[in-house]
């Protein structure tokens, strides 16, 4: 995963730090005060603050694999001595040494399950980003500078309720960390992954997903192509077109939306309109973060949903079933005549 337009922290900011880490600030440079007793004079050289580069971690590329046209898998091993722990949904920020690049720093979501061998995997989509192009040129044995890991854990706080995962493009990456981790710990609730891609040639990681589905009957995945070729037997269309009619109910589910900000904003808005508590909707936009859908677009998406099990504020408002509140008393405190 990468977002060279926005960081993958998403709504809610940075979560609690893992053991061995301090809370991550919002800048790439920390200001370190001088040690020891300070001189009285404010202008004394000893009082000068020191700038500390936070991209002081190092990892070596151990494997490089082309998954499909324009998508790479890069495996790294951490070679510094600092602790390295992460949860599904966490990311690292990479810094390129090439000063000729306009964009030298960018966050990338970790796509491998948590482990104890100090390794991690990144999915890189070559979409014109300078730093992604720089990473794609790395050879096995090359070393990168990074900071982290940090972010928000995707692990549900309660092991009850179905998980519905929607991803576009390399937004599937964090789910490749989340699903094996949960299933390996005995999570027995249904997990349904819907992965939206544009073309058939964008499809990859099928063997990994098939292996997971065979090992865990409560996991399933479907792929939806917005521009499918003739004979494609998967879902046809964007996720906002194909997923709504596949959800018989909305209650008792937790939704995870990752990838294109347009898909996320549309789905999150409609789910809220249909009664889904927004605390049960995880959102992580990689791009199109300022997208706001047209009312007609939302109306069309709402019409595709077949689930009616939740109280829908929007439907009641449309049907004018919400009555304006009538004050029970007048300003003098006497009972108002409601006749």
Please name the CATH architecture of the largest domain: 3-Layer(aba) Sandwich
Percentage of residues in DSSP E strands:
25-35%
Q: Which structural category fits the helices and strands? A: alpha/beta
Q: Given the C-alpha coordinates, what overall shape results? A: globular
Distance from N terminus to C terminus (CA atoms, Å) equals 63 Å
Q: What features would you describe in this structure?
A:
There is one protein chain. It is built from seven helices and 14 strands. The chain starts with 28 loop residues before the first strand and ends in a 21-residue tail after the last helix. It has two domains: 52-151, Translation factors (Elongation Factor Tu (Ef-tu), domain 3), CATH 2.40.30.10; 162-318, Rossmann fold, CATH 3.40.50. α5 packs across α6 (295-304). α3 (206-215) links the parallel β10 (191-197) and β11 (219-225). Residues 1-7, 9-17, 19-26 and 330-339 have low confidence and may be disordered. By secondary structure, it is of the alpha/beta class. The longest helix has 13 residues, at 261-273. The chain has a six-stranded antiparallel beta sheet with strand order 6-5-8-3-4-7, with helices on one face. Strands 12-11-10-9-13-14 form a six-stranded parallel beta sheet.
């Amino acid at each position: 995963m990468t977002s060279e337009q926005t960081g993958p922290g998403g709504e809610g900011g940075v979560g609690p730090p893992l053991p061995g880490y301090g809370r991550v600030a919002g800048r790439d440079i920390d200001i370190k005060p001088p040690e020891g007793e300070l001189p009285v004079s404010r202008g004394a050289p000893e009082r000068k603050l020191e700038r500390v580069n936070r991209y002081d971690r190092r990892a070596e590329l151990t494997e490089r694999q082309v998954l499909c046209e324009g998508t790479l898998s890069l495996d790294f091993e951490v070679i510094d001595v600092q602790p390295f722990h992460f949860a599904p949904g966490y990311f690292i920020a990479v810094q390129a040494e090439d000063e000729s690049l306009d964009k030298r720093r960018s966050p990338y979501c970790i796509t491998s399950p948590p482990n104890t061998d100090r390794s991690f995997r990144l999915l890189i989509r070559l979409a014109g980003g300078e730093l992604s192009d720089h990473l794609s040129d790395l050879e096995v044995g090359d070393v990168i500078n990074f900071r982290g890991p940090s972010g928000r854990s995707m692990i549900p706080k309660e092991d009850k309720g179905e998980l519905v995962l929607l991803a576009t493009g390399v937004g599937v990456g964090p789910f490749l960390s989340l699903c094996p981790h949960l299933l390996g710990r005995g999570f027995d609730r249904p997990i349904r992954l819907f992965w939206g891609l544009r073309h058939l040639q964008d499809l990859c990681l099928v063997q990994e997903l098939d292996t997971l589905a065979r090992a865990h009957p409560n996991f399933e995945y479907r792929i939806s192509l917005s521009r499918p070729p003739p004979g494609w037997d998967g879902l046809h269309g964007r996720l906002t077109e194909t997923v709504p009619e596949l959800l018989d109910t909305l209650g008792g589910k937790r939704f995870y939306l990752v990838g294109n900000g347009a898909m996320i904003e549309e789905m999150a808005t409609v789910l809220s309109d249909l009664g889904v508590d927004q605390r049960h909707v995880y959102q992580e936009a990689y791009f199109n973060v300022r997208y706001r859908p047209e009312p007609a677009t939302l109306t069309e998406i709402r019409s595709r949903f077949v689930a009616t099990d939740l109280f829908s504020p929007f439907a009641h408002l449309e049907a004018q079933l919400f009555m304006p509140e009538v004050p029970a008393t007048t300003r003098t405190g006497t009972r108002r005549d409601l006749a």
